[in-house]
């Protein structure tokens, strides 16, 4: 059978657990047990060996006509790993299909930059060293998220942690492990102590996500900006009250104004 592939609200390709179970020709009455194992087992993901995380690797899926049946949307990567670890006789077929889909998605989102693109990211890196631009980019990203989720922002921080790869809780733990106080600190304050360059990466990701780019593309641009910031030793500058250093890199004034006044095109977005 064909395995349908869907596009999530975040623009990620996903499959339904019920349909994957059926495609793998696994026994129906073992579905509940199998799916519970699927989302709690340990896999070798691209980023780490770990268990799947809700809202990052899988999410609840509402099923019409059967409210008792628990179904989930699974990322293509998780679905592929499930196939490889299953005892299905047809797992090779679907593992290859999902691997191909995963590769296509990665290639489609891979940044193929020309010289002009590289220079723009470099200028964006300098601009995002300014706290005012960081805050503006985050607000723009939040507007897009809110529009895509029917005006709701309840899961903003969970979603943000999934996109950026860190959370306030994780940052606090790292600070405490270093013997530094973390109570009452914002994420920005904690990152300044842990990895200030990450603030620039985060801001660049926020800006590209606000522009409607995919998560993969935005993160690749953020990673590139962070490399630039490290190599050029660009420091984060709190310019909100005229406190920026005289030695700060000269950011493009026009670009800074664009970031601060940027209005995402949210009118056509749906939940």
Task: Please supply descriptive tags for the structure shown above.
single chain, 271 residues, alpha+beta, 12 helices, 6 strands, 53% helix, 7% strand, disordered C terminus
Structure characterization notes:
There is one protein chain. The protein folds into 2 domains: 6-109, Mlu1-box Binding Protein, DNA-binding Domain, CATH 3.10.260; 115-261, no CATH class. 53% of the residues lie in helices and 7% in strands. It is built from 12 helices and 6 strands. It has helices spanning 17-23, 31-38, 76-85, 91-109, 115-127, 131-148, 156-164, 168-177, 187-194, 197-210, 215-232, 253-261; strands at 6-7, 13-16, 43-44, 49-50, 58-61, 71-75. The strands form 2 sheets. The chain has a 4-stranded antiparallel sheet with strand order 1-2-6-5. A two-stranded antiparallel ribbon has the order 3-4. It is elongated. Residues 267-271 have low confidence and may be disordered.
